[in-house]
Amino acid sequence: MVLEMAVVEQRNRGWKGKMAPVAARSAGAVGVGVAIFISVALTTYLICDRRSKKKNISRKNGVVEAIGNTPLIRINSLSDATGCQILGKCEFLNPGGSVKDRVALQIIQEALESGQLRPGGIVTEGSAGSTAISIATVAPAYGCKTHVVIPDDAAIEKSQILEALGATVERVRPVSITHKDHFVNIARRRASEANEFALKQRNLQLNDKDTAKINGYESDGYHYSSLFPSDCQGGFFADQFENLANFRAHYQGTGPEIWEQTNGKLDAFVAAAGTGGTVAGVSTFLQEKNPEIKCFLVDPPGSGLYNKVTRGVMYTKEEAEGKRLKNPFDTITEGIGINRITKNFAMAKLNGAFRGTDREAVEMARFLLKNDGLFLGSSSAMNCVGAVRVAQAIGPGHTIVTILCDSGMRHLSKFCNVEYLSELGLTPKAAGLEFLGIE
């Protein structure tokens, strides 16, 4: 509009060659000025228009709104090597540093809405680290505290991070899930104890011995625990393995984001499973959108899920030969691998599974750091091993998505420790991807 008005004005002033020299010079000066004005106006408009079209630049309302909507990136080295587009969902960019932020948020929000958790309450969880860190990140935003029970063979920096976040941390020896002192079972007890302790405190304040209820828990006696603050408003066991809020976090969030970021043009999805929430939520959503999308599991050593998916029987080679280990997860990868079917994993829609090894995960982590600048944790590295295996199975020209669960920052003492790997005979040696049969 501005340009058209300027042209009309110039025509009215005599662009027919009848202007005097001085008038012509004046008109020329005016023309240059108008041209400059138009150029500046158009440039300003284009910049403002471009800025207005950018996504995700709006201000977030607290840490909770910063969870999710993570970038989906092309992993260049793996894509170039396989002839597929291998894409990684950068979950390590969540505020708490992992994919588990989504789960923690969903669990806490649903618990508050249902009344199972109250502001001032304590969220308890048994976790190898990432979910606990996410709960400790999210809980304070809702006025809650965190109590974590963690196996003592988990990387020590996870406990240090939890304590820095203000969580109460119990480190316990790894035992079978059937044992009463398995870290998950202890966490469940802590929630009940917190409810009983809160009930005692309330009755003392009311000076009333009548039976009362806190978060649905009824007490016929009092049990004091120094683990809980005096203003404790009861406990809630997050139960990430069996709580289907885990599944819903990925069915409602991660899956739709992947679909939108790929414009629905993907051929396969692959991920490892611990609780099973990620692989179940994403696979279910994607296959509802397009049944032709193939979804796969990648499983570490010691886990029975590979056998369950491929053979329908839950056992591992080691167990079948009577070589049951003290720690049933014979792997250095943390947070993935399990020997039972959780409610979350039972929701998964899988077309097959691949077995990964510790060496492959270690080599993959070093390869990606060297070639892509990606500093990833053990489960992320295993997922990338799975992505290459899928690419090899379905052939070039396909788009494959996986999850980059967390960074290597919380794996410094073990998975990323040279001495630790050397003691296990896992010092990385590969120059390229020959450990996956790619020369």
What does this structure look like?
This protein has 439 residues and is an alpha/beta fold. α1 runs antiparallel to α2 (21-53) and α8 (245-261) crosses α9. The chain has a six-stranded mixed β-sheet, with helices on both faces. The chain has helices spanning 2-12, 21-53, 76-82, 100-114, 130-138, 156-164, 183-206, 245-261, 277-289, 305-311, 317-320, 358-372, 378-394, 418-423, and strands at 72-74, 85-90, 122-126, 145-151, 168-172, 213-214, 217-218, 235-237, 268-271, 294-299, 352-355, 399-404. The N and C termini lie far apart (60 Å). The protein has two domains: 64-93 and 254-436, Rossmann fold, CATH 3.40.50.1100; 99-205 and 228-237, Rossmann fold (3-Layer(aba) Sandwich), CATH 3.40.50.1100. β6 (213-214) and β7 form a beta hairpin.
What's the helix and strand layout?
Blueprint: H1 2-12, H2 21-53, E1 72-74, H3 76-82, E2 85-90, H4 100-114, E3 122-126, H5 130-138, E4 145-151, H6 156-164, E5 168-172, H7 183-206, E6 213-214, E7 217-218, E8 235-237, H8 245-261, E9 268-271, H9 277-289, E10 294-299, H10 305-311, H11 317-320, E11 352-355, H12 358-372, H13 378-394, E12 399-404, H14 418-423
Parallel strand pairs: 2-12, 3-4, 3-8, 4-5, 9-10, 9-12, 10-11
Antiparallel strand pairs: 1-2, 6-7
Helix pairs in contact: 1-2, 4-5, 4-8, 8-9, 12-13
Overview features:
disordered N terminus, four-stranded parallel sheet, Rossmann fold, globular, six-stranded mixed sheet, alpha/beta, 12% strand, 439 residues
Structure at a glance:
With about 450 residues, this protein is of the alpha/beta class. It has helices at about 1-10, 20-55, 75-80, 100-115, 130-140, 155-165, 185-205, 245-260, 275-290, 305-310, 315-320, 360-370, 380-395, 420-425; strands spanning about 70-75, 85-90, 120-125, 145-150, 170, 215, 215-220, 235, 270, 295-300, 350-355, 400-405.
